[in-house]
Amino acid sequence: MALLKMKFSQQRRVRLAQGLWLLSWLAVMCGAFIFCLGVYLKIELLRRDEVMEDTDIHAVPNLLMLVGLASIGANWVASRVCQDSLDASRFPRWKVLLLGWYAVAVLLCCLLLAVVVLSYALQGRLEESLKVGLRNGIRFYKDTDVPGRCFQKETIDRLQMEFRCCGNNNFKDWFEIQWVSNRYLDFTSQEVKDRIRSNVDGRYLLDGVPFSCCNPASPRPCLQNQLTDSRAHYNYEYQSEELNLYSRGCRQALTDYYMGLMNSTGPGVLSVILIQLSVLLSMRYLQTAVDGAMALESPEGESEGYILEKDVKATYAEVKAKALDLLKFAQVDPASEVAGAEEGEKAAEASAKAATTAA
Amino acid sequence: MAVLKVKFTKTRRDKLAQILWILNWISVVTGVILFSLGLFLKVELKKREELMAEKDIQYVPNMLIAVGLIACIINFLGGKICYDCVDSTKFLRWKLIMLPYIVCTFFFTLCVLVGALMCYSMHWELEEALNLGLMQAMRFYKDTDMPGRCFLKHTVDTLQIQFQCCGNSGYKDWFQIQWISNRYLDMSKKEVIDRLRSNVEGKYLMDGVPFSCCNIDSPRPCIQQQITNNSAHFNYEHQTEDQNLWMKGCRQALLEYYTHIMQSIGLTVLITWLFELSVLTGVRYLQTSLENMLRQGDPDSESDGWLLENSFMETARTNLSIIKSLGKSNQINTANNGDPNIDVPSTSKAHYGPDNVPPKEKMETS
Fold first, then answer.
1. Are the CB atoms for B246 and B164 separated by under 8 Å?
2. B162 touches chain A (CB under 8 A)
């Protein structure tokens, strides 16, 4: 009992071939779209490379680019097959390739699903990577004279202004590190000496933040220094002030941004999976219908198209038997070899006897 | 003596008509481009209208939008006419409209040229508008509690961050206005009262700038307060320090930005003008050659095409006399005491036959 059998007249076969040709070109466009999506995501991740510790999250755009290219190739092959499908002399050469093509198409769909799953699963790794990267960035903020780190200040300032965030988790991260370089500290001043002595590592810590944490939407000119001291500024209360600086942490801001990017690509990827599946099914129907038509006496007549020749259980049993046969063929079984040799001798004797009695 | 006479065979006329049809459709596309450029400029000017004083600079994008739309319509009509000109019978439909169409298109191309020149002349008005507008915006920077002005602080801050500029002409503009609101000044402190008393108008002036003036590329954390006081900061010299704050004034930064846009648009409009002019020339040649062909009576014959039938001076003279006679037709004719019923014998040499023509014999109906 064939699975999802459908009858195909000559005209329907022609229509199917034409429709599938268009669909496979659409799938080529979708493959190009997936590739461009991967490139865009990769560029966005590379732009903020300096605040990320490791590159695990790059698996998502890499996979997208790979699948995009493979999809373009596979669907182009599908369109060529469609063009040749109605020509009885040219179609048979594609027969061998088609089984491999089905495998590739199924693999592409699985990979696209994996991409969607990965983009959610790698969120934790992204956050960890950002946490470490931002911590280092903030620590090396003051080292504008150290080669290799001299652009950290600019990077962090730009990041905080663009993403409207401050610090790693929040602005208090700036209180724990020294972000003013020793080059600009007057070591003869008593205040500086006191501050440096006040902590174990001898760092100049203050309850202030860089200017890039300032929120332009605040009604009041930005307060950057002595933030925890409510008396240092007129009409200011540290606990209730929330418009003065950006309240969000940069790790949260960046994670939200990247998750937003990947989520918005989700529907696109899912629709590409659907298109690829429909190309796969239509190709199977076309193959079986054209094969059926070529086996008929009159090639213009009606033929049947199906997805599987027998139903799922029977096909599975058949495939299993074939696989086991292949395995058995590959095995070297000494017992069966000897038994086979004996049987061969007996058969030779029997045929010799039969020959003499016949003669 | 015709101006720039060219001979046209039938095949050349047909080719010309076809090419002009395609060119007219390309002109429709350029009309759409002009329209969208005008729209883009309008949006860009509207985005920063808070920083521009009330000067009438919107006329430039409005002109571009109008010119773009009219270009689309005219060239669409031109395309239809040229398409029909291949067939001499269809040309008869358009014969009477073609000359007015050409004249209108000629005046329209003048409008396009005026539009291009306006793009370049807008520069001075824009500079004045920006100067006044920025001055006002900086003055009202502190008024975040006044309705209608409460977003100026945010606008000026984002402007200074985005365009990497500070103040109107430079950062010193901030020293001359009070940019901290009285709400945040502790009036009980002596220092505040001293500052307020130190100038005539009672403004709290200081040698400090808002945070948005800070330069991102500076190797040192931003110095915003006591900028002119070298001893207030370690290892700091006010006169030689140029990386601490943005050095460019916002008026100049915005002017550069808009001038760049205007120059690109002006160039595009000039190219469009040249293109339109060449299409118009082609249509004029087509019109004159088809009319001459009709005059000769043979659709397959060679005909001449020209820009003007007589030389430029003669054409100008004839047109002026036509305009004068149009004016005269309103006046009363005093030749025969103003009586229009008197029969004045015809003085032309043509013989139009006898005045009384006997009626034709009626056909006998069967």
1. yes
2. no
Asked if B291 contacts B95 with a C-beta cutoff of 8 angstroms, the reply is yes
Q: What is the CA radius of gyration of chain A?
A: 35
Of all residues in chain A, the one with the smallest CA distance to B218 is A154
Instruction: Report yes or no on B52 lying in a domain.
Output: yes
CB B150 within 8 A of CB A219: yes
B94/B233 same-domain check: no
Q: Rounded to two decimals, what is the model's pTM?
A: 0.77
Which positions in chain B touch A221 (Cβ < 8 Å)? Answer: 179-180, 184, 210-211
B147 in contact with A, Cβ within 8 Å: no
Six-digit token pair at A92? 């048979």
Residues B117 and B54 in one domain: yes
Same domain, B77 and B217: no
- Decide: helix, strand or coil at residue A199: coil
- How many Å apart are CA B175 and CA B182, to the nearest integer? 16
How many other C-beta atoms lie within 10 A of the C-beta of residue B125?
Answer: 15
- Inspect the interface and report whether the beta carbons of A221 and B211 lie closer than 8 Å: yes
pLDDT digits (tens, 9 = 90+) for B86-131: 777 777 888 888 888 999 999 999 988 988 888 888 888 899 999 9
User: B211, B224, B230: which to substitute to probe chain A, counting the most A Cβ within 10 Å?
Assistant: B211
Chain B: residue whose CA lies nearest to A143: B219
> Which segments of B54-183 are extended strands (E)?
none
ipTM comes to 0.75
For residue A345, give the DSSP letter. Answer: H
Quote the domain boundaries for residue B94.
Answer: 2-137+252-319
Q: What is the pLDDT of residues A96-112, one digit of tens each?
A: 888 899 999 999 999 99
Number of domains chain B is built from: 2
- A184 and B158 in contact by Cβ < 8 A? no
Do B113 and B16 belong to one domain? yes
DSSP 8-state class, residue A303: E
DSSP B319-350: HHHHHHHHHHTTS---TTTT-TTS-PPP--S-
Rg for chain B, CA atoms, rounded: 35
The two tokens of residue A190 are 């008593």
Set of chain A residues whose Cβ sits within 8 Å of the Cβ of B212: 214, 216
Evaluate the CA torsion angle B111, B113, B117, B122 in order and state its sign: positive
Could you say which DSSP state residue B304 is in?
Answer: E
Q: How many CB atoms lie within 10 A of CB B312?
A: 11
B256 and B226 within one domain: no
